[in-house]
Amino acid sequence: xxxxxxxxxxxxxxxxxxxxxxxxxxxxxxxxxxxxxxxxxxxxxxxxxxxxxxxxxxxxxxxxxxxxxxxxxxxxxxxxxxxxxxxxxxxxxxxxxxxxxxxxxxxxxx
Length: 110
Description:
The chain is α+β, with helices and mostly antiparallel strands. The chain has one helix at 77-96; strands at 5-7, 16-21, 24-36, 39-52, 59-62, 66-69, 73-75. The chain is built from 1 helix and 7 strands. β6 (66-69) and β7 (73-75) form a beta hairpin. The chain starts with a strand and ends in a 14-residue tail after the last helix.
């Protein structure tokens, strides 16, 4: 941890707050890590706060929270809610398909 990053206590909504540049900070928290085929994917929530130091009083602009899935996808809260709904639908459909109890044999028997 550097002087440019603060670690918050466990009951705080954010785990870390980092100075991004001289006029902004980022808050973030990893919500969870999911093991997928050979890798892990983190689910993280973050929020930026920008400061306009040239106004009196100092201007503060809080950006909407963003949710990231791994290092690839960044979503709004509404997009993440829709993604969760679609994933739930996919799970529901997959659970009703045959073959979900046992994995298929990879080697044919003779």
